[in-house]
Amino acid sequence: MMKGFIFDLDGVIVDTARYHYLAWKKTGEELGFELSIEQNEKLKGVSRVDSLNKILGWAGVEISEEKFNRLMDEKNEDYLNYVEQMTPADILPGVKDFILELKAKGLPIALGSASKNAPRILEKIGMLEYFDAIADGNSVKKAKPDPEVFLVAAKSIVTAPEACVVFEDAEAGVEAANNAGMISIGIGSPDNLSHADHVFSDFTLITTDFILNLQPKH
Ligand code: BG6
Ligand code: MG
Q1: pLDDT above 70 as % of the chain
Q2: What is the domain range of residue 102?
Q3: What is the band of 1 on the pLDDT scale with cuts at 50, 70, 90?
Q4: How far, in Å, from the CA of 63 to the mean position of ligand 2?
Q5: pLDDT tens digits for 53-88?
Q6: 49 belongs to a structural domain
Q7: What is the pTM of this model?
Q8: Are residues 75 and 99 in the same domain?
Q9: Whose C-alpha lies nearest to ligand 1, atom 16?
């Protein structure tokens, strides 16, 4: 039986991609570049530093380290202004009930997110206290698809990696879960999450019975 449950935040618990988009689009404008919605898709699950590097690559622009840091700070300030407007109504369908069901069974829940803003977002949507442990952009050095964030999360809930299930909406996140030897559940479309062990479009379609009865990979 699976024993530990690790949730990504952005795109799994809340849809923050549109706020990241609006904030990065403004950064793009400062660089004389228009960020498209398709390009924003490629930034899902990608760390803040890597996101800006990708945008600079698409824009074909090189900047100083000082400007790089300033653009990251400004982007985060803009993003946080959107976060401040978030409420429990921003929780994605079914995920809160799913987590509550696992908690009612006494099972440990951890967050495994690239975001450095994770605690603030969880606070705004009223879900901070649901998590037994939080592994986020502040607790790790290596970005997904490196498994570090999920391994740190598993350790914090004292569960072996192979007994953990990860819920992820991004390709890099699914890879990270697979690299950690955990069961990966993709939330979204099978088109871009083909490496996940199972894919569901949202949590209203997932039962805790199905998840608890999954078999470890090895
Ligand atoms: C991920 C998001 O969860 O966190 C990315 O999908 C984001 O879009 C990354 O860049 C880092 O988040 P933050 O909040 O620390 O900039
Ligand atoms: Mg995500």
Answers
A1: 100
A2: 4-14+90-212
A3: confident
A4: 28
A5: 999 999 999 999 999 999 999 999 999 999 999 999
A6: yes
A7: 0.96
A8: no
A9: 48
